[in-house]
Amino acid sequence: MAGGRIAHATLKGPSVVKEIVLGIALGLTAGGLWKMHHWNEQRKVRAFYDLLEKGEISVVAEE
């Protein structure tokens, strides 16, 4: 009693190398965007303290 060969669909799984490269690319992109946001916030804070030091603005409310 010989069993016949059954044609199975070959499942093609995700490429591990492709997923690693995609993960690295997405990580670097997200990290770059976060750093640009951080640098922008630093620039705003630095400008605020520069104006405060020059006396052009004050944190005390005028009466």
UniProtKB/TrEMBL annotation:
Compartments, as annotated in UniProt: Mitochondrion inner membrane
Transmembrane residue ranges: 20-36
Keyword set includes Ubl conjugation: no
Assigned keywords, A-Z: Membrane, Mitochondrion, Mitochondrion inner membrane, Transmembrane, Transmembrane helix
Cellular component GO terms, alphabetical: mitochondrial inner membrane
InterPro entries referenced in this protein's UniProt entry, alphabetically: COX5C
The keyword Cell membrane appears for this protein: no
Superkingdom assignment: Eukaryota
Known role: This protein is one of the nuclear-coded polypeptide chains of cytochrome c oxidase, the terminal oxidase in mitochondrial electron transport.
Entry's family note: Belongs to the cytochrome c oxidase subunit 5C family.
Designated name of the protein: Cytochrome c oxidase subunit 5C
Organism whose genome encodes this protein: Manihot esculenta (Cassava)
Lineage of producing organism: Eukaryota, Viridiplantae, Streptophyta, Embryophyta, Tracheophyta
